[in-house]
Design brief:
By secondary structure, this protein is of the alpha/beta class. The chain is built from 13 helices and eleven strands. Helix 6 (115-131) links the parallel strand 4 and strand 5.
Length: 317
């Protein structure tokens, strides 16, 4: 089946519109029915285009059939501008598999390979994807941090601006994830004074003036969510995210897709911990999971409104 059968769209049009009008599309990671429903409800409430991001680990966890059954059951319409995106696909095979399943967008992440090999595998994925009208994102530079078994790196290599034009031309990808100081996971900065390398981003944007750029590892890590978790039995210390003002600045410099995962994990955990602390006698999963869903929903609405600036864009573009 194709992604059109599920009412999905690819990301090309939505990213180009975001680039033109100076906002970003949130790529929110989902990994079960609850996070899926919360993200979808937030997008519909805010009338925002959205990218449902699924990592390899999340796909393994949910399974192909269950994931696509949930997508079908949501009755998504093309005019809602919702894409289903493979996040950090690490091989041609997994990207092709996702396309054949009905994903409308895939990311091939060969960033740890030598430059020439990254080009070769990214171009191969793009060629297959474009035959199916599927969008392709690739990564240049290495983003550090640990998110799950398929998204982790102990090293950080900033994107070299002099490489970006050659990479885009030779791969024919539709968007480019760049490394400018973001990091996967909840521990993105060693101190609150660290800033993204906007000098690198400015040079890339100058060399690729009309090309969609992507930030991974860009969760804000809201302090209030960390506080709620720790107040209710958690032990998350020294967690620091990317400040909202820096994310907003990146959006003015051709970044039109921002990936968010850790914020949603924190929100879901904060909701569940709060309910279990307040109601230690509770053993009905529907009760405490519902609170987690609610916090994910509120977090997505807030980030669509305050960071992406993509609310009400379905009708105003």
């Amino acid at each position: 089946m194709t992604y059109q059968d599920f009412g999905l769209v690819n990301t090309n049009n939505m990213l180009n519109k975001a680039l033109k009008h100076g906002y970003a599309i949130g790529a929110f990671n989902m990994y079960n029915m609850e996070t899926f429903k919360a993200i979808l409800a937030a997008a519909r409430e805010t009338q925002s285009p959205v990218i449902l991001a699924v990592s390899e680990s999340a796909l393994d966890y949910m399974g192909d059939d269950i994931l696509m059954s949930m997508i079908r059951g949501a009755n998504i319409k093309p005019n809602e501008n919702i894409a289903l995106h493979l996040d950090h696909g690490h091989s041609y095979e997994i990207c092709a598999h996702a396309i054949d399943m009905g994903f409308s967008s895939v990311m091939i992440d060969a960033s740890k390979l030598p430059f020439k090999d990254n080009i070769e595998i990214s171009a191969r994925v793009a060629k297959y994807a474009h035959k199916h009208n599927v969008s392709v994102e690739a990564e240049l530079g290495v983003i550090s941090g640990h998110e799950d078994k398929n998204t982790k790196s102990d090293i950080s290599l900033f994107t070299h601006p002099d490489d970006v034009v050659e990479f885009v031309l030779k791969t024919n990808v539709d968007s480019l994830a760049v490394a400018i100081g973001t990091s996967h996971g909840a521990y993105k900065r060693k101190s609150s004074t660290e800033k993204l390398h906007f000098d690198i981003l400015a040079k890339i944007a100058e060399l690729l003036p009309d090309f969609p750029l992507v930030l991974h590892g860009a969760s804000n890590i809201p302090k209030e969510l960390v506080k709620i978790i720790n107040t209710n039995g958690g032990e998350i210390t020294n967690a620091r995210g990317i400040p909202i003002d820096q994310l907003r600045q990146a959006v003015t410099m051709n970044v039109c897709k921002i990936n968010v995962d850790s914020d949603l994990r924190l929100a879901f955990t904060a909701g569940i911990r709060t309910t279990l602390k307040l109601h230690p006698d509770s053993f009905n999963p529907r009760e405490y999971i519902a609170t987690g869903m609610g916090m994910v929903y509120e977090t997505v609405v807030g980030e669509i409104t305050d960071i992406m600036n993509s609310a009400n864009r379905l009708f105003n573009d």
